[in-house]
Amino acid sequence: MGRAIRILLVDDDHFVRKLVQQQLTAQGYEVQAENNAADALAALESRSFDLLITDIVMPGRDGCKLIRALRGAGHTLPVIAMTGGVENAVGDCASYAEMFADLTLIKPIPQADLIEAVKGTLGGA
């Protein structure tokens, strides 16, 4: 049997982070949850992941800057971006995320839609 698919989840909202982590773990994914981009980048340096799921609007380094840093470092990791809505995004951040993420989801995300998005982004895994 192969190793579990590893997902790095980044969201500054504790409730959202825990809910998404529980939903993905229940589907058999191994999820490492971080509450900010700096910790996510450190995690990416220390182990490999199969997918990054990141919130777009976060204090400090937002999800767009996280995606930019990821791509700038040469990572080809698939990315799902999440946002509470374009009206909450700063500047063109939501548009940027849509350009560089494999998929952008609008919160709240129904569990079935989240799982379908993850499977689709991972090629059915």
Can you tell me about this structure?
- The longest helix has 13 residues, at 14-26.
- The mean pLDDT is 88.
- This protein has a single domain, classed as 3-Layer(aba) Sandwich (Rossmann fold), CATH 3.40.50.
- The protein is built from five helices and five strands; from the N terminus they run βαβαβαβαβα.
- Helix 2 runs parallel beside helix 3 (63-72) and helix 3 runs parallel beside helix 4.
- The protein is an alpha/beta fold.
- A five-stranded parallel β-sheet has the order 2-1-3-4-5, with helices on both faces.
- The radius of gyration is 13 Å and the shape is globular.
- It has helices spanning 14-26, 37-46, 63-72, 93-100, 111-121, and strands at residues 6-10, 30-34, 51-55, 79-83, 103-106.
Mean pLDDT value: 88
Low-pLDDT residue spans = none
Which of globular, elongated, flat, extended, rod-shaped describes the shape? globular
β-strand percent reads: 15-25%
Number of extended strands: 5
Helix/strand structural class: alpha/beta
Domain count: the total is 1
CATH C-level category: Alpha Beta
Question: Major beta sheet, specifics?
Answer: 5 strands, parallel
In CATH, the topology is named Rossmann fold
Distance between the termini: 14 Å
CATH architecture: 3-Layer(aba) Sandwich
Number of helices: 5
Helix content: 40-55%
> If strands are numbered along the chain, what order do they take across the biggest sheet?
2-1-3-4-5
Oligomer: single chain
The secondary-structure element order is EHEHEHEHEH
Radius of gyration: 13 Å
CATH homologous superfamily designation: Response regulator
